[in-house]
């Protein structure tokens, strides 16, 4: 069985219930655990069920360890993202490991790690072009094929970061297109996220215009008010 801090339930608890000091401790514990796993003996890895009985060849052992570490790195990246305050910039090394593993393994494309990495580096001087390329590639795939694993919160959060990067690099028209996509989603799903939660997802220090006060944007405000009225009518 994996340590409890690698489970999805723990990740949810990390976001919803943990205090900042508990979040920091969880990050530190997972970092230490990753280092421990990397240096473990084969016997210890088998004791912890990291390696399975059928893993007998070196190729099988290496593949199993790589997959396990990938799970650890992705969980760590999510811990950084959902920390209060957000620490996504610190997730860059972990996310590069996740993206590298996905490229090595092949198979169905998962855009979430690429988008997380793009957000992690989009404010780093000298990495703007890489971030823009990651955003562009991942969202092109997402817009064409969709991806159930990428929830609306992650999508809106990443699109807002991309719009912010585009504005900062002088690509205003492209930024406005991403901002409108955010608005269109909210207008189509006005009851899914509260204005307060929307603000946390898309707003950053120094934002102006659409992202600066998303709950007061006319289209968004009208859609949310209509949803509230429908809710009251249903209750009556």
What would you note in describing this structure?
The chain is mainly α. The chain has a domain at 1-88. It has twelve helices and no strands. The chain has helices spanning 8-16, 20-39, 42-47, 58-82, 92-105, 111-121, 128-145, 152-168, 172-188, 195-202, 209-212, 218-235. It is globular and about 60 Å long. It starts with 7 loop residues before the first helix and ends with a helix.
List keywords for this structure.
single chain, 236 residues, mainly alpha
Quick summary:
By secondary structure, the protein is mainly alpha-helical. The chain has helices spanning 8-16, 20-39, 42-47, 58-82, 92-105, 111-121, 128-145, 152-168, 172-188, 195-202, 209-212, 218-235.
Overall 3D shape: globular
Helix content: over 70%
Sheet with the most strands, sense and barrel status: none
Structural class category: mainly alpha
Q: What gap, in angstroms, lies between the N and C termini? A: 50 Å
Mean pLDDT: 92
Radius of gyration: 20 Å
The number of helices is 12
Order of helices and strands: HHHHHHHHHHHH
Give the strand tally.
0
Fraction of residues in β-strands: under 5%
Low-confidence stretches: none
Please specify the SSE layout and strand pairing.
Elements: H1 8-16, H2 20-39, H3 42-47, H4 58-82, H5 92-105, H6 111-121, H7 128-145, H8 152-168, H9 172-188, H10 195-202, H11 209-212, H12 218-235
